[in-house]
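queue> pop job 88
queue> type: inverse folding (structure -> sequence)
queue> payload:
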């Protein structure tokens, strides 16, 4: 069957009957517009791709809810794209806020009290150096490092707490450690 001559309303009717090829045709016709719209709002290609996938998954799952009397297919799909992009923006903001709060909560001040004022000053200087190095990291990397090293959480516990995939946490941890090594290299004593 050739889908090229069919209207989008005819294609969605076929999708409602479970026709995957019709969904593919709708995707080919509208995915660029959905992606472009999501990219415009989110300014992040990966997130825009996620939104595009979610929209067309919803087209498949919710095809029966399409009502042509309420507007055309393009209006329906772009409204869905708008809602998904806004949801994604809110998710990003919630994650960013949670990461910032976790980073702030987990930064532990080193105990600089000691018998020797010189030792106290040295510890304070080391703590400040580490704090400044941590500040150079992106928030996501800083959070996983502070949760691991200052709160003693494992990578799996961090993934659970931040509601992120374990692989993401491991990657962020590895990148953060690499950046900290470079940032702190001038302050290390020669071996």
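queue> result:
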């Amino acid at each position: 069957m050739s889908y090229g001559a069919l209207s989008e309303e005819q294609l969605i009717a076929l999708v409602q009957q479970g026709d995957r090829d019709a969904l593919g045709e709708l995707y080919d016709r509208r995915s660029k517009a959905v992606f472009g719209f999501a990219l415009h709002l989110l300014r992040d290609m990966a997130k825009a791709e996620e939104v595009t996938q979610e929209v067309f998954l919803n087209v498949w799952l919710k095809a029966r809810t399409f009502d042509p009397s309420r507007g055309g297919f393009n209006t329906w799909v772009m409204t869905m794209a708008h809602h998904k992009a806004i949801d994604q923006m809110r998710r990003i903001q919630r994650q960013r806020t949670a990461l910032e709060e976790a980073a702030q909560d987990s930064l532990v001040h080193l105990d600089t009290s000691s018998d020797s004022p010189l030792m106290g000053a040295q510890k304070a200087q080391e703590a400040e150096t580490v704090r400044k190095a941590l500040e150079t990291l992106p928030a996501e990397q800083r959070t996983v490092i502070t949760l691991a090293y200052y709160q003693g959480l494992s990578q799996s516990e961090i993934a659970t707490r931040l509601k992120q995939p374990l692989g993401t946490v491991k990657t962020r941890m590895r990148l953060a450690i690499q950046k900290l090594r470079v940032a702190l290299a001038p302050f290390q004593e020669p071996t």
